[in-house]
Specification:
single chain, about 500 residues, mainly beta, 6-stranded antiparallel β-sheet
């Protein structure tokens, strides 16, 4: 192609008829084309030795008018072909992208989430009971995030009532949806079309036609980067004279922080109909999805209900500050280690060589450079409530969670002298503790004499009980490297 005016010069031996019937072009004098051209093969020429530097200008002066028209015609055909081909590829990719769990129903009253399954060109979901308001959400929806309305589907007409077996027009984000006239509807099928923006509820009745078990999500929270709690409640919808079972079993299936499949089961009695999962092996800064299944046996027959609930965990705190060689650098910090021996999994320890005034605080995201505090300050940080706070040794000091904006607040060890310190961060008490503890790599092993007790307790250096009534000789096996109190004495563990 060229923006130069075609002069109409006719290459030797090429006629108007040649161009019309599609004979190959022959270039006058230079007999070449750009070897990187995307033209059909018959426009290519193997002689590249004499190619002019300005190909468009050469073409403009050496392609006759009829050949130029032929070239444009061929490019037009190619353009149409590639446009059609691209459209087909995009359509196939769009179809292949549709899958189970793309969308879910969220019931306001119970916070229960029921995911749609994709089959035969439509999204469907089996729902045991509809009660109260609900909306449909795309799985990409992030609570509290910006520009999220496009992921929320509600009533388009301002009237949320849906008449069973008729389609309801939806919009983003729309109004809350519910059954027309209120009340409860049992055993229905949701049919959702996100392209047509419609929802249809098929089947259902005002009374259950069989005994069912319903599971509701009461609450879900991440209590630390690797721990979380999920509370569920159960409801037995009985028909006739069905007797309630004594126990219900609820199992959570999930992927732990090592990437392995894990599961946990709780037993719920019919007196409470509520139970809580406590997880200690979740992925930090993640929506950890829990696939749930509740089961019970009624009149010799198993009944069940399933659901999915996310447990959002916070990001791992990173210690920054006046670290040896990295004085308040936004892109450098110390990662913490979880105290595996503390059952709740909510305590982390950091070993840092502090210099200067020994100042430090905690962030959840490092900057991209040493002075990139914008990135650091746009994420959650943990610091003392006032400007500079002296932290006495082995004393828990409360922290404040700062969600946005910069802060100069920091701790420093009381009576600070440069050296290596162990700092503990505890989510349960929302506090930190400082321990002066140079940990030499060549520290001698603890000598066990005749006066050594048979059993002992093991404490962290800040006084937290880690192990109780352990055989003295094996009391510290498996503990991370660090300082501990064993048998009333400081003990150095080197791994």
């Amino acid at each position: 192609t060229t923006d130069q005016k075609v002069t109409g010069l006719n290459p030797v031996g090429v006629t108007k008829r040649d161009a019309q019937i599609g004979r190959p072009l022959f270039l006058h004098k230079t007999e070449c084309l750009n070897k990187h051209s995307l033209l059909p093969t018959r426009f290519h020429n193997s002689n590249f030795n004499n190619c002019p530097k300005n190909i468009p200008e050469a073409l403009a002066h050496q392609i006759n008018y009829f050949n130029y028209l032929y070239l444009i015609k061929q490019l037009s055909i190619m353009k149409k072909f590639y446009t059609l081909f691209s459209f087909v590829i995009i359509a196939v990719m769009h179809l292949s992208a549709q899958s189970d769990y793309d969308y879910y129903i969220d019931f306001n009253r119970t916070h229960e989430k029921i995911y749609f399954k994709y089959a035969n060109g439509k999204y469907t979901a089996d729902v045991n009971k509809i009660e109260g308001d609900f909306k449909i959400y795309n799985s990409h929806y992030i609570p509290g995030g910006a520009d999220q309305d496009k992921y929320i589907f509600g009533s388009a007409d301002g009237q949320g009532g849906i008449t069973p077996n008729s389609e309801k027009k939806l919009s983003n984000p729309g109004n809350n949806l519910s059954i027309e006239g209120g009340g409860i509807l049992y055993s229905v099928i949701f049919v959702f079309d996100p392209e047509a923006m419609t929802l249809k509820i098929e089947g259902g009745g005002t009374f259950p036609n069989h005994t069912t078990l319903e599971m509701h999500i009461v609450s879900s929270t991440g209590t630390s980067p690797e721990t979380g709690e999920l509370t569920v409640s159960l409801e037995l919808v009985k028909t006739g004279t069905t007797s309630a079972p004594d126990e219900y079993y609820v199992t959570a299936y999930y992927t732990d922080n090592t990437g392995n499949s894990s599961q946990q089961e709780i037993v719920i009695g019919n007196d409470s109909m509520k139970g809580t999962f406590t997880f200690t092996d979740l992925k930090p800064d993640n929506y950890n999805l829990m696939a749930l299944k509740a089961t019970a046996t009624v009149n010799g027959k198993e009944i069940s209900d399933t659901g999915i609930a996310p447990v959002k965990t916070p990001a791992m705190p990173i210690l920054i500050g006046q670290i040896d060689g990295h004085n308040w650098e936004a892109n450098y910090g110390i990662q913490g280690m979880q105290f595996k021996e503390i059952p709740d999994g909510k305590t982390y320890y950091y070993t840092a060589k502090l210099t200067g005034d020994g100042e430090f605080c905690f962030v959840t995201k490092l900057g991209n450079s040493a002075d990139d505090w914008t990135t650091v300050d746009s994420n959650i940080r943990y610091a003392p409530p006032t400007l500079r706070v002296a932290a006495p040794e082995k004393t828990w000091m409360p922290y404040s969670e700062i969600s946005s904006g910069s802060t100069p607040n920091a701790w420093y060890p009381e009576n600070f002298t440069p050296g290596t310190y162990v700092i503990e961060f505890d989510y349960t008490t929302k506090s930190i503790a400082v321990v002066k503890g140079d940990i030499p790599t060549d520290a001698p092993s603890v000598t066990i004499g005749n006066d050594t007790p048979a059993v002992t307790d093991v404490y962290s250096i800040t006084g937290v009980l880690l192990r109780k009534d352990m055989p003295y000789r094996s009391a510290t096996e498996g503990l991370p490297a660090g300082l501990y109190i064993v048998g009333g004495k400081k003990t150095v563990i080197n791994n």
